[in-house]
Amino acid sequence: MLAGLDPEQRAAVTAPAGPVCILAGAGTGKTRAVTSRIAHRALTGEISPRHVLAVTFTARAAAEMRARLTVLGVSGVQARTFHAAALRQVRYFAPRLLEGRAMPELLDSKVRVVTLAAAKVGLRADRAAARDLAGEIEWAKSSLVEPGEYVIAAAKALRETPYEPAKVAEVFAAYERLKRSNGVIDFEDMLRAAVWGIEEHRDVAEQVRGQYRHFVVDEYQDVNPLQQRLLDAWLGGRDDLTVVGDASQTIYSFTGATSSYLVDFPRRHRGATVVRLVRDYRSTPQVVGLANAVISQARGAEARLRLELHGQRPPGPEPELRIFTDEPAEANAVAARCRTLVDGGTPAKEIAVLFRTNAQSEAYEKALTEAGVPYVVQGAERFFERVEVRQAMVALRAATRSIPGETPLPAAVVEALTAVGWAPDAPPPGGAARERWEALAALVQLAEEYAATPEVLPIGEAAAVERPVTLSDFNEELARRAAQQHVPTVDGVTLASLHSAKGLEWDAVFLVGLSEGTLPTTYARTPEQVEEERRLLYVGITRARQWLWLSYASARSPGGRARRPSRFLPQLDRSGGGERAGGGVAKRTAARRPATQIVSCRICGATLLAGPDRKLGRCPTCPSDIDEDLYERLRDWRARVAGAQKVPAYVVFTDATLTALAERRPGRTEELIAIAGIGPRKLGLYGEAVLALVDGAAVDDIAPQKTFEISS
């Protein structure tokens, strides 16, 4: 049972009964550790498997846990999501709790009832607005907030509400009344019913607690107050609880999830065993180093439990940071690289393109389609299958009959979209409404790009004429794109938002659109919201096993307003120059711009940010393998050169450069110029002498003309 576990995993598996907190970084084998802990305790006779309840947040994770336990020879453990566990208990106890009445029907979605509730209080909510109202109601109920408490609670939580908070509270109250009158319950009601059954019925509590005596909670940083209340009810004051989580992957606070229970676990459970899993078996040291560099800048409560990961895989390629003139160029480059990867043998299903919002997917759907690369969209519809996009295309076709043909295409598209409630000003509050607005804004952007390429019509044999593209032309272009992108695919490159990528991993990952205003989004206004955006990037980075690409576009569309790179990206020196990534790049074309390479420690693989560390090629804490004799000969040689040139010694080479030379011992010109601080000029002045010294020459053997030659 303990074979093959690393020391930290072994400590988690063999921890004594009682409260145990496993802080598990991305890729550190948390599922293996927690299932091995259950199996070890069961097979040694410490516990009975049928008395274990393991809860997680997805059916996929629960199924994986059950499968691993079966392989380990343990059966009978209940591994379920919070909702599945609560539903099972409520159904079982319903005859007793409801005095023989049938259990109410469970709503699959709140949207229909919320729409009716909004109408009851005088709001006409479209589907997007109803989704946002449903999200607010879910947040409130998950946070144990009642309708009458909503206004104050929303203000304290700095919620960005889809309507004025008092109006949302009215919809909330009307929603609750409609549910009761229709005899239905929602998922939060089901959790509350499970809590009520245990807290208010002693016989139910005794039976539940007699059945379940040992608890495991996965992804504990994502627990909300209602789920914690249910967990406390299950425990009934007992402390045989193992929780697993990573505060740096807290990215769902907008739903009511909070990492506070994970952060405060040792305080709430005195004497708890805390184990940190930091050996990353998923990603190369280069990817791990970048992840560490990004999350090392985190602030706030979650940063108190920040883990520094240590990559366990063999070294791989350096992550790449690419900068493009505009988003279409970025999408086309991503598609071309995907094509190269697939042609080189990487399965398409092992490649992912991750972005901040689903509305960004259209450019990548188009580019991948044109590159002949199959793709699938994770957790959302394809762009042209979205309800609002289909409605907009109907409105655009209808507008050809009412909008004058000479109207410029972008203006015609904006005018037509007003018929479906879109306006070209700031997007509305609420996540779903904002996403709908952004999807329609993407159509306007497409129109601007399409209008920038007038159609050339042949006239006779020797002349041609340009004519502006019309709304009818644009409708035909949209129909063509939709037809291409509606081709069904089975295995393909995954297109996904960073939120929906949580818990998944791929061999190759593209993180795109990493500019200010997108990541972090402009709607992240508080320090806590900004930190959650940083954690989103961290989650995205840690999805990559082998190959990682980060990119952003200097402008949204060709010739558009310049944008800055995301503040979360390490400020990396550009090879061959000193320019910072993102600084002054808007005027360059992507074709002439070399890729920015992230420099990693040649010993441990961590990303190097400080200039001296990048020059040495290692972390300051990693052991030096310096050749002391070579270092002293280099110092003597430098002193002679500086004396002859009548300049300070550091003008020739700094101490850090001499140390890098003595550690890395370059044998060829290519290796010499790869050391930061040695550019073409110094290579011409000193390169031959340095290579001779590295090869073993004495300082006195260096030809004077090679040592003291001064460039004009």
From TrEMBL:
It comes from the Bacteria. It holds the Pfam family HRDC. One of its GO terms (cellular component) is cytosol. InterPro entries: DExx_box_DNA_helicase_dom_sf (IPR013986), DNA_helicase_UvrD-like_C (IPR014017), DNA_helicase_UvrD/REP (IPR000212), HRDC-like_sf (IPR010997), HRDC_dom (IPR002121), HRDC_dom_sf (IPR044876), P-loop_NTPase (IPR027417), UvrD-like_ATP-bd (IPR014016). It catalyses: ATP + H2O = ADP + phosphate + H(+); Couples ATP hydrolysis with the unwinding of duplex DNA by translocating in the 3'-5' direction. Keywords: ATP-binding, Helicase, Hydrolase, Isomerase, Nucleotide-binding. SUPFAM superfamilies: HRDC-like, P-loop containing nucleoside triphosphate hydrolases. Residues 3-284 form the UvrD-like helicase ATP-binding domain. GO terms for molecular function: 3'-5' DNA helicase activity; ATP binding; ATP hydrolysis activity; DNA binding. ATP binds at residues 24-31. Residues 624-704 form the HRDC domain. Transmembrane segments: none annotated. GO terms for biological process: recombinational repair. PROSITE patterns: HRDC, UVRD_HELICASE_ATP_BIND, UVRD_HELICASE_CTER. Residues 558-589 are annotated as: Disordered. Residues 285-546 form the UvrD-like helicase C-terminal domain. Its EC number is 5.6.2.4. It is an enzyme of class 5 (isomerase). Belongs to the helicase family. UvrD subfamily. This is DNA 3'-5' helicase.
